[in-house]
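The following record pairs a protein chain with its ligand, fe (ii) ion.
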Amino acid sequence: MGAAKSLSKKIVEDQPGLTAKSSYLGLATRDLADWVSRLDAVPTLPVVAMKVNEHLASNRSSAQSIAELLRQDIALSSRILRLVNSSYYAIPGGVADVRKAITFLGFQTIAQLILGLSVFSVFEKSASAELSLHEFWKFAMTSAALTEKLARAVGYQQPEVAYTAGLLQDLGKLALITMAPEPMAKMLRWVKSTRTHVCIGEKEWSLPRHEEVGENLANRWKLPPEIVGVIAHHHDEIKELGGDLKSQQLLACVQLANHTVTEMHWGSSGSVTVAGTAKEVLIEFLNLDQSWWLRNQAEFETEREKVEVLLNAYL
Ligand SMILES: [Fe+2]
């Protein structure tokens, strides 16, 4: 927690009031503040998910506290049970209650599932012809699964958090589609026709950066600082960022997972290219030798089927 804080601290120092990045973009501070105020239009995270965030932040979370929180939201509990009983997790014989699910998967995994599912539920009615939610979540879930796999491979201490970071990195896009569906539709059509990246499209169409919007929303929702850091920086060059090694390691896992999922043409986050650090640089940064990479790339492909199963349990 402390390690990730330093990246978050840097974010605060680097962009007090978000002015630094807005001037870089040519977007007036007033305009950006206006965009941020429009986040009021985005529904709040379910109460249980907010409480889970508070528990995780205070290190008070335990299997019992998570199970008790979930008891307050029957609908969310039943969706969690549907997820954990899917073949993605393959719990022998299945489980009938959350407490047993925690026994098999651990409270960290369940807590991260609660966060992911809650965000999904906030945006499940956000429709965009230019960015299908099915394709969006397919990309996000595969990226999340690969981020977790990479995090485990490089010894990152909280692989479950890595999953959520991969899953929610593009939170800002969902918020922007909700707040400004027409401008976003135009921008996404342009990105598709020019085969550029959403980051370029946002600049071209005078939209705020989705990383900035996502960071603001994630802070409003009190998401864990490690996840806020990834949302804010997932398109930045890894070597240009400050912060501690652990935070950079997490960000590198997310970016490398993005490269892989984009190359697989699996789902869509709106872009057909990747913005951020080059793949070779990330592999080197994470000390993953080429043979490890080749061995595991085949395994990454199998994640597709598992993600499809999980996605069906979400929908
Ligand atoms: Fe992004």
